[in-house]
Amino acid sequence: MKRTFVTLLMAIGFVAFTQAQDTETVEADGSTGAKIEFEKVEHNFGKITEGTQATVTFSFTNTGNEPLVLNSVRASCGCTTPKWTREPVAPGATGEITAIYNSKGRPGNFTKTITVKYNGENGTQFLTIRGTVESAPVDAAPPVQANPK
Question: Are 37 and 63 in contact (CB under 8 A)?
Fold first, then answer.
C-alpha cells in the first residue's frame, strides 16, 4: 500500500513538473510579445495657413517577437483624423499612423494628441502634433448695391 501511494505521489509530481515546463519561452533580454518603436512621437508643423489640411505620418517598427496589433488610435479632438495600419505588424516589420489636422476656422496655436493603444509592452503610446494656424486672407467685400426708390 505504501509503495502504491509513493508511486502515485511521484507520478503526480512528475506531471506537475512537466506541465510547469510548458510555459511561454522568454527571450534572452527577458521580454516577450510585441513592442512598438516610433521614429518620432512629436511633430511641429510650424506656421500653416488657415484651411490647410496639415498631414504627418508617424512610422513605427515592431521590435518585439510577436505580431503587433493597434487596437485603437484616437485623436484628442474632432479636428484631427488618424489613419493607421489595420493589419497585424509582424516582428521586424513597419507600420504607419497618419494624422490629418483640419485648420479651417481654427486660427492660433494648437497642440493635439493621438492616443495609440496596442497589444504589446506598455500598451499605450502618445503622439503629439502642434503648430500655429495663421488666419486666411480676407476676401474683398462684395460691392454694396443701392436700393432704387
Answer: yes
Question: Per residue in 112-143, pLDDT tens?
Answer: 999 999 998 889 999 999 999 999 877 645 55
Residue at grid coordinates 521586424: 92
Q: Which fold has domain 36-134?
A: Immunoglobulin-like (2.60.40)
Instruction: Supply the Cα-derived Rg of the chain in whole angstroms.
Output: 28
Dist CA 65 CA 31 (whole Å):
9
**C-alpha cell recorded at residue 37:** 518603436
Buried b / exposed e over 24-51, threshold 16 CB at 10 Å, is: eeeeeeeeebbbbeeeeeebebeebeee
